[in-house]
Write a structure and sequence with these properties.
Number of helices: 16
Radius of gyration: 21 Å
Strand content: 15-25%
Distance between the termini: 24 Å
Helix content: 40-55%
Order of helices and strands: EHEHEHEHEHHEHHHEHEHEHEHEEHHH
Number of strands: 12
Length: 386
Amino acid sequence: MRRVLHILSDLVPYGAERVVATLAAQGARDRFEVAIASLYAEGAETLAAPLRREGIRIFHLDKRRGFDPRMFYRIFGVLRELRPDVVHTHNYVLRYVLPPALLHNPPVMVHTIHNVAHREVDRFGRWLQSRAFLRRVHPVVIAEEAAISYERVYRLPRPPLIRNGIAVARYSSAAVSREEWRARNGFSSDDLLFICVARYYPQKNHKTLIEAFASGPAKISGAKLLLAGDGELRGDLERQARALGIAGKVHFLGRRDDIPELLAACDVFALASLWEGNPLSVMEAMAAGLPAVVTAAGGVPELVATEEQGIVVPPGDASALSAALMRLATDPAMRRAMGTAAAQRARTEFDDRNMVEAYESLYDKLLSAPVERRAGDLAIDKIPAA
């Protein structure tokens, strides 16, 4: 039995955290014993409780905001207790994990870059990771655009590409009907609902989405923009909607636990991100059969073929975004055709079993490699990319 320890900053239910939860809960339990260490304390709405119910060990290290040197000792304590065969890090945590890991010397270290490389960490993080990727840590990217940015930032050979995955069946078969969800949540059967599922954060660029909606679909009777998520910019976005005179048409839903039902009740998915990795929200919307209006940020165009499953526009271009939203708002046949194509692509390409099996194949390959081989020297042609 191989032991795998995932280390990440938090267990809030965002993209990278949900990927880790999937890897932990759906892995081959007869071959891998998985645990998770979160730098921050357990919050009220995290993935910790459901993971514990799956039998996954969770360590919360109670990190303080800002640089916290206590993490070095606490991470070393977890490594000493678990003695993992694989340490798999995510987001910015390598700056805390690398020193104790070098002392403990686990057989294999893997790091997933969940965004384009120049957006993942700060300058010090890139300096540290460039040295780690040369000698000790095996990087993974989640999109072709992320691989390109990795080569540009780190000037190292392209690492394995393992795309994110979702529970396609869960999003393609909602537990509550479209009509029932709408009735419960105050929307009529005739409303035209645009949905964005993303935290209120500068990367997701809700400001441009609201601007585009205001100049186009908001002028259509019954058109509404639903924003599911939470974050630091909510107040600013609410003020923007009021200033544009569309406060009654923009609905801030907060963080939701009924995303499959929410998506199934809507008509068009929209995401105006300025930069991205391989966003789960786009795949989930496609699995639910929604056409997508998205920006060409990071790996998003690798998910949505423009004019087939949706419309892809340049990041930050409110006019192009508004025009794309209007095309779908005024053409029900286009919505249906693109939604059907989106659902088909999700069924064939986005299932999370592909992702889990690809990571486990990577672990097996690295564990069987001679100790002296460096990350950059490993052949990756036989590592499956979901």
